C-alpha cells in the first residue's frame, strides 16, 4: 500500500518523503540563518551601507581593526566627508576573495 499525500501542487508518495524532508530542512536552515543575521530585528538589504560599528559587528572584529584596514586600503569602503561607509555585498565579495581552498578542493582540482 502506497501512502500518497496531496500538497498544493504535487503528490507526495512515501518514497519521496526523504528528499522532501531534506528540502524542508534546507529551507529551515536558511530561515534560521536569516533570523540569526538579523538579531536586531531590522532587515538589512545586501546593498545597504553600514557604518564602522555595524561593519565591525558584521565582520566580528573591533572598530580599530576596521580603521586599520581602511588606512592600509585593504577593505572596500566609501568615504563621504569624514564618514566611512561599507557595502555589505562588497564585504561579502571581499571575504570570498580571501577564502583558501580546503585539502579536498585542492586534491579534486589535480
Q: What series of H and E elements makes up the topology?
A: EEHEHHEEHH
Mind telling me the C-alpha Rg?
21 Å
Biggest sheet, strands in spatial order?
3-5-4
Could you give a short account of the major beta sheet? 3 strands, antiparallel
Poorly predicted runs = none
Mean pLDDT: 83
User: Overall 3D geometry?
Assistant: elongated
Number of DSSP strand runs? 5
Q: Helices and strands: which structural class?
A: alpha+beta
Q: Please, could you describe this protein's structure?
A:
This protein is α+β, with helices and mostly antiparallel strands. It has helices at residues 17-37, 52-59, 63-71, 88-97, 103-109, and strands at 4-6, 11-13, 49-50, 78-80, 83-87. A hairpin with a 2-residue loop joins strand 4 and strand 5 (83-87). 5% of the residues are buried. The model has no long low-confidence stretch (mean pLDDT 83).
List the helices and strands and how they pair.
Blueprint: E1 4-6, E2 11-13, H1 17-37, E3 49-50, H2 52-59, H3 63-71, E4 78-80, E5 83-87, H4 88-97, H5 103-109
Antiparallel strand pairs: 1-2, 3-5, 4-5
Helix pairs in contact: 2-3
Which tags fit this structure?
two-stranded antiparallel ribbon; 110 residues; elongated; 3-stranded antiparallel β-sheet; alpha+beta
